[in-house]
Amino acid sequence: LAAINSFKVDARPTVVNRASLLATTSANVTGDPRADAVRQAFLHGWNGYVTYAFGHDELLPVSKEPSDSRNGWGATIFDALDTMLIMGLDDAYAKAMSHVEKVNFQVSNENSKTFETTIRYLGGLLAANDLRPDPILRKQALALVEHAIMPAFDTADGIPAAYVNVNTGKAVPGNSLDLAEFGSVQMEMTRLSQVTGVSKYMDIANEVVTRVQNIQAYPPGLYAIQWTDKPFKPDPSGIITISGGGDSYYEYLLKNYLLLGSTDDSLLSSWKTFVDSMETYLQQEDEFHSFTYLADMESGKLISQSGELVCFVPGNIIYGAKLLENKEYADFAKKLMDSCYQIWEGTETHIAPEAFNWIPKGASLDGYTEDQISQDKERGFYFSPREASYDLRPETVESLFYFYRITGDKSYQDKAWKIFQAIEKYCRTPVGYSSLINVDIANPGWSDFQESFLFAETFKYLFLIFSDTSTISLNEWVFNTEAHPFKLPSSLNIQI
């Protein structure tokens, strides 16, 4: 409660010096014209959304039609709020706020997905409020939580339901339990308690992680992504992965530890166990290039598959390595960072696929065709065409951001710039940015969807990589899994 009380709105308004926080319209403020290029890309996507889909969740940037995949409350607007403030886009922010204050979170044609609503909507509201305190943001954050998130916890065992019917205010029964979903609402609920001084939000969310921590796992600290509810435990036949379904649970162990003022040592201990087990049980080198990947595991056996979602891990590990001054962790993170970036370098478009495979070191080559082996020798991995799409994801850029901010090595800026150029070349449409169908052919094809996290994550991390390092310093801020920054209770010594 002491941590909460120190964050009460009236006692400690988070008023941030704009000179140190915001890189404004002039490229001279950032000192790097690449930041302004990213800012212009953000505006291109935003203006298309405003023209053809304002108030809806997403823009279909090829057909120029709106889409509502996140309850129709305007997910792109909420996800973009803090990025607009960071980029100094005050006119766009004012228009966005004109929508935010009118949204009724008690009405939707679809059930609210607890995890997505928390990280996108609540995360966006809280981050914007940390950057520019506003009673409208706090009022809407509380309305959202009470109507769309807290009802999810009204279950027999207190483990949040995957969906809530906001029209009735009731949890939807019978949904499967997903580790990353029930284990990735903690940062947002912690921050809401800190801002409001009401402890119930953080208490009910953090108790879920305590329940997970009390369950022994093998490998230690790694869990199957699917869980049963009676009893509450991981499915013994389930797959262990650091990709979708598991990813942000592990990410939040370290980050919520920091957001809580480094007061819950069990979170840090669990994070260290997670990293140690990844290094011991999941890392796997490829046959021809000795790149290091994180494999999935099923029934104790490794599956040589991974994807772009896993590429948040290098940034998360280097973050913790700096905090703990742990060279072994830093070396492990570097190997994973190099491998993630190499995936982008290895495709026809220089854009990473959603998922990929590799030939593991020492494996028999009898099961591989000559074409697969020759591709692997040339590119460093065997590409899986069944998941050759690109959904405008930010994970490799996110890790490059952490590596640049923590090491000061400008080669990470150069890599991020190459990624941005590839996105500009292949994803940009006349009115926005589209996901791609197949990144491993010269004409990858647009799949006609502009994810809201393009504005929350991909453009934000790219902009920050090229901005002055005092802009959203890792010493003062911590990001949720949707890249929404929350103000830390005390300063750290993380970045240069």
Any key phrases for this structure?
47% helix, 19 strands, 19 helices, mainly alpha
User: Spatial order of the strands in the main sheet?
Assistant: 3-4-5
Radius of gyration: 21 Å
Number of helices: 19
In total, the number of strands is: 19
* Main sheet record: 3 strands, antiparallel
Oligomer: single chain
Per DSSP, what share of the residues sits in E-state strands of 2 or more residues? 5-15%
Please state the overall shape, judged from the principal axes of the Cα atoms: globular
Mean pLDDT, all residues? 92
What structural class should be given to the helix and strand makeup? mainly alpha
How widely separated are the two ends?
32 Å
Query: Stretches where pLDDT falls below 50 for ≥5 residues?
Result: 1-29
Helix fraction, binned, reads 40-55%
Enzyme class: hydrolase
Family: Belongs to the glycosyl hydrolase 47 family.
EC number: 3.2.1.-
Cofactor: Ca(2+)
What does this entry look like structurally?
The chain starts with a helix and ends in a 9-residue tail after the last strand. The chain is mostly helical. The protein has helices at residues 2-5, 18-21, 27-30, 33-53, 75-87, 90-100, 114-131, 135-149, 179-182, 186-196, 200-213, 247-259, 265-282, 313-324, 327-345, 370-379, 395-407, 411-427, 453-465, and strands spanning 58-60, 65-67, 112-113, 163-165, 170-171, 177-178, 226-229, 232-234, 239-240, 283-285, 292-294, 296-298, 301-303, 305-307, 355-357, 428-429, 432-433, 477-479, 485-487. The model is unreliable at 1-29 (pLDDT under 50).
